[in-house]
Amino acid sequence: MNVMNKDVVVTRPYKVVYREGDQIIKVFTPEHGKANVFNEALCQARVEESGLNIPKVLEVTQIDGEWALKIEYVEGKTMEEIMENDPVNMEKYMEQFVDLQLTMHEKKAPRLTLQKDKFARKIETLKETVDATTRYELQTRLDSMPKHTKLCHGDFNPSNVIVAEDGTMTIVDWSHATQGNASGDAAITYLQFALKNQKLADLYLDLFCKKSDTAKQYVQKWLPIAAAVQLTKGIEEEKAFLSRWIDVIDFQ
Q1: How would you label 214-230 residue by residue, b for 16+ Cβ within 10 Å and e otherwise?
Q2: Which of 212, 103, 96 minimizes the C-alpha distance to 163?
Q3: pTM, to two decimals
Q4: Dist CA 4 CA 91 (whole Å)
Q5: pLDDT tens by residue, 95-105
Q6: What are phi and psi of 152, to 5 degrees?
């Protein structure tokens, strides 16, 4: 679509996101598929039912022949911007970030897809990049993990947290939401930090485990699974990093 004169928020290979008044408009390429657009709207609507304060889906529509979502606009800066602009207070911001994630994990959204089912499907799509033996090991490990039904974001990182002037924090972009295991969700967040800054990844994991009273080894057991899930996004510059994590089956 033509985005000239639009207040573009972000661009991705499969979508353009821009602001229009009090709405955020996500316009998707035809390759993303109609079903994926409706599924994202459904995921977000089901998260709304959990009682968590998130932007509401307003409409699924077509713009210039391409499928689009209209979502409430939330005023503020991303947590990522705040962290980058004030690194001296990084630990304070990371504590707020982890506290928000733990608040989310306390919620239930029983009509969301089960995390383990979604992860299993994603692992099976990696036939071109991950050999059968490794996929079997990943599926076996996934099967052995406890089945929980906590609200999980699936892409929880500082760019998906909007902080208002009064400090209120809002989580956005719920297209990967599931109900499942909080440590599996944390493993994805850890890897997203580690892709950019290992020191921040370690700080995040330390705080998450301390505040949730979770053994670090337990989150680490999820890391190869989380790496496989992230690998399905097909981001070329992340491939080598994530592939190394998939090969790490045991931690000392």
Answers
A1: eeeeebbbbbbbbbbbb
A2: 96
A3: 0.93
A4: 39
A5: 999 999 999 99
A6: -120, 135
